[in-house]
Automatic annotation (TrEMBL):
SUPFAM superfamilies: Metallo-dependent phosphatases (SSF56300)
InterPro entries reported in the protein's UniProt record: Calcineurin-like_PHP (IPR004843), Metallo-depent_PP-like (IPR029052)
Protein name: Phosphoesterase
Pfam families xrefs: Metallophos
Calcineurin-like phosphoesterase domain: residues covered: 3-132
Organism listed in the record: Paenibacillus mangrovi
Length: 169
């Protein structure tokens, strides 16, 4: 049975992100390889992965080579660093589907790159990236930036369990 995962903000090929986010890598090549290994350590070929943006700073050829090495069927919601390239560019790079906008998943989760404003009366949970190692307070937000998850995609089961646990506190 296939599982569903979510992750964001890999920034493949982005040397400066190592310093910006204090990532523990000596080079962009080391970072890229580690992130590919971490992805494939939890995602199987038949799984689905929603990537919530800022995937790669490489050209199409290098980006496609990375996408091909990653397990699972991959869906991309464009992040601020992805928007300079067309939807067809990302499809050609190997993503199964690409969305320019946030999507509602299972009628409860809003998947977006940037956190979306939510008042305390909204019943949704916003699964997002963009803010890297920062965190929004409250039960309405779930940050899946790679820095929080040891560079591994997070399963929906883990997200749901985490939300239930935080409600019980």
């Amino acid at each position: 049975m296939s599982r569903v995962f979510v992750i964001s903000d890999h920034h493949f090929g982005h040397q400066k992100i190592i310093d910006f986010e204090s990532r523990p890598f000596g080079s962009v090549e080391e970072m890229d390889e580690h992130m590919i290994e971490q992805w494939n350590s939890v995602v199987a070929k038949e799984d689905k992965v929603f990537h919530l943006g800022d995937f790669s700073f490489y050209n199409k050829e290098k980006t496609k080579a990375i996408v091909e090495r990653l397990n699972g069927t991959k869906f991309l919601i464009l992040g601020n660093h992805d928007r300079g390239r067309s939807k067809s560019w990302w499809l050609d790079a190997g993503f199964h589907e690409v969305s320019e906008y946030p999507i509602l998943y299972q009628s409860f989760f809003i998947l977006s790159h940037e956190p979306i404003y939510m008042n305390k009366h909204m019943p949704y949970v916003n699964i997002h990236g963009h803010i890297h190692s920062q965190k929004y307070e409250g039960q309405h937000y779930f940050n899946v930036s790679v820095e929080h998850w040891d560079y591994k995609p997070v399963s929906y089961e883990e997200i749901k369990s985490s939300l239930v646990a935080s409600e019980e506190q």
